[in-house]
Design brief:
Layout lengths: L1 H5 L2 H4 L2 H33 L4 H50 L2 H6 L2 H43 L1 H7 L3 H38 L1 H6 L3 H53 L5 H42 L21 E8 L9 H4 L13 E8 L4 E6 L5 H8 L10 E3 L2 E2 L5 H7 E4 L10 H5 L8 H10 L3 H6 L17 H14 L4 E5 L7 H16 L5 E5 L3 H4 L4 E6 L2 E6 L1 H4 L5 H17 L1
Parallel strand pairs: 3-8, 3-9, 6-7, 7-8
Antiparallel strand pairs: 1-2, 1-4, 4-5, 9-10
């Protein structure tokens, strides 16, 4: 239970509401246990020939106590259960804060469905532990403490006999508790995998349909759902055994009270009213006893959930701002990369807990970047070309410090990116990734995402440079058109140009485009790039670094780098590169021939 100790602060920080809830619970249970005592006195007085008025007085007292007990019980639930909602709020806040600061390498190694399952289902179990779990535990503890006091005041010998079955129940419960913990953990993992399947199928529904794989994906879902159901049923069966086992203790105690208490009444050591009171106490304490079984199950489920949440919360933030950050100078900035080596799997060990990797894990993947040397001068226009998987996108991520680059390898304006505060770095380097992402809001809000206070005129200008004005005229509400989830109502080319406009608007000294115009035709791409260059010239010289697979669009670049298998295999101007035998000249010739064939 070390995990519960580590996260005990989630609950102890709410000592005030818990204390008030405990006070109300003590009052509730004191009244509940007082009622059998009053009932016992009524029986003894009735046996002694009490008047009708006295018996009605006892009945009235019981009614008043019951009403007061109801009020106290409602108060206790309000205070304790409200804490569980605060715990839910705080835990989700902790998780989101951690997730939003983790490096992209973490998300490349994990599944969105699994993370969402942890954020929802596992947090729900932690919330239940801090709400109903604490409530029923307090209730059982207070009920036992007060009930024991009442029973001892009547007969300490009979009280001792009542607790004889307890050791047997404790052994059985211990066995069941360990089974519940195991099944809960397996069920949570199965549910995460199930959520991942759903998330992937919904996000990639067009791919599923285009390959007519609806039934195959449905079968995959059903198989995983059956696995989750299997572990869920095993957990339910084990929990179902736990509550009756604990209730068995209460039943055995009632039998003991009747047998041993009856002998005491016969011997004159106990009155009938006292025997009825003790039996009532045993009956009242049966439900808290049964609840103990449920509480133990809840503790195990909460502990298993906390272990899964802890795997996220302890994941290291591998890319962060330094304690003593160096500022980047104003004005145009250069980009210089010296001998950069990078391999994605080298950072998986950082997330060994959530990925379940052992200490001997070794990656067999090649380097994504190998001994890269790269220069983009201030205000220059540099292009990067190469085959798919050659490392072009990774190189752009290194410039914006989106991957874990070593010290002394990437410099902006002469400053090592590792020494730059991340907010400043991301403001000085605009980046349009290959996979554009739009939010479920208007076109205007998507363009102004990085500059929320931008005026409509500034957004219009950015849209114009990105070649988006004609498309905006075709949209029903222009800039105010809602684009739907991930920009689903826009074409691929429109989504890309909105993303480009978003990067233009932040007016950064460096702009990186990673195949950001691959869904528009070559002529449109070239016009947009020319517009970006013209804007850069009027903007004190913005440095432009463009990745493109179409040589015709970037052949006017000041310098072109050719990449293959993570290495720079050639670089120079377009005129120089087409004269050298190699990858660039081959790509240019293939694209030239393709363009000529299309004209036929």
């Amino acid at each position: 239970m070390d995990i519960l100790k580590r996260y005990l602060f989630l609950y102890t920080r709410h000592r005030g509401p818990y204390f008030l809830g405990a006070v109300f619970l003590i009052a509730t249970n004191a009244i509940a246990l007082a009622i059998p005592r009053v009932f016992g006195w009524a029986i003894d007085d009735l046996e002694a020939g009490a008047t009708r008025g006295l018996i009605l007085s006892y009945a009235g007292a019981i009614v008043v106590l019951a009403v007061f007990q109801t009020v106290m019980r409602v108060g206790s639930r309000i205070f304790v259960l409200s804490v569980s909602r605060r715990i839910d709020y705080e835990m989700k806040g902790m998780l989101h804060k951690r997730l939003i600061h983790l490096a992209p390498s973490f998300f490349a190694a994990t599944n969105t469905g699994d993370l969402m399952s942890r954020m929802t289902n596992d947090v729900m179990l932690v919330r239940a532990l801090g709400g109903p779990g604490v409530l029923y535990f307090f209730n059982a503890f207070v009920m036992y403490a007060l009930g024991l006091a009442y029973m001892v005041s009547i007969s300490w010998r009979l009280t001792l006999v009542v607790f004889l079955p307890l050791p047997i129940v404790a052994v059985l419960v211990r066995i069941l508790v360990h089974r519940v913990r195991d099944y809960v953990t397996r069920a949570r993992i199965a549910l995460s995998d199930l959520n991942t399947i759903v998330q992937e199928n919904l996000s990639g529904v067009m791919v599923v349909k285009s390959f007519a794989l609806e039934e195959a994906q449905n079968l995959r879902f059903e198989n995983q759902s059956a696995t989750y159901m299997d572990f869920g049923l095993r957990e339910a069966w084990t929990r179902a055994q736990m509550i009756p086992v604990v209730g068995l203790g209460g039943g055995l105690a009632a039998v003991v009270v009747i047998g041993f208490g009856g002998r005491m009444v016969s011997a004159g050591d106990l009155s009938i009213g006292d025997l009825v009171a003790v039996m009532s106490y045993v009956g009242v304490m049966v439900m808290p006893t049964v609840a103990l079984g449920w509480i133990l199950s809840l503790v195990q489920r909460g502990a298993a959930a906390l272990e899964r949440l802890d795997e996220v919360l302890v994941a290291p933030v591998t890319i962060s701002s330094p304690d003593s950050a160096r500022p980047i100078g104003d004005g145009p900035l250069s980009v210089v990369i010296k001998g950069l080596n990078f391999r994605y799997d080298d950072h998986l060990r950082n997330y060994g807990g959530i990925l379940k990797l052992d200490e001997t894990f070794e990656s067999g993947r090649r380097h994504a970047l190998h001994k890269i040397d790269f220069v983009a001068k201030e205000g220059g226009y540099v292009a990067i070309v190469g085959r798919v998987g050659s490392g072009k996108s990774t190189l752009l991520k290194a410039i914006q410090h989106l991957i874990e680059v070593p010290e002394g390898s990437v410099f902006l304006g002469g400053v090592d990116v590792v020494e730059v505060e991340l907010d400043e770095l991301r403001q000085r380097v605009g980046f349009v990734p290959q996979d554009d992402f739009l939010f479920s809001t208007t076109v205007f809000d998507n363009i102004a995402y990085g500059q929320p206070d931008a005026s409509r005129g500034e957004v219009d200008t950015a849209a114009q440079i990105a070649g988006l004005l004609v498309d905006l005229e075709c949209l029903p509400d222009g800039l105010d058109t809602v684009v739907g989830e991930r920009g689903a109502t826009l074409s691929g080319g429109q989504r890309q140009r909105v993303a480009v406009a978003r990067a233009i608007l932040i007016d950064s000294p460096i702009l990186l485009l990673d195949n950001a115009l691959s869904n528009v035709d070559a002529e449109t791409e070239r016009k947009i790039l020319d517009g970006l260059r013209a804007n850069a010239a009027s903007n004190a010289g913005r440095t432009l670094v463009v990745v493109s697979n179409r040589i015709g669009a970037i052949q006017d670049a000041d310098h072109i780098y050719v990449m293959d298998e993570g290495r720079v295999v050639n670089h120079g101007s377009h005129a120089q590169l087409i004269q050298r035998p190699g990858l660039y000249a081959d790509m240019f010739e293939q694209q030239r021939l393709s363009a000529e064939l299309e004209k036929l």
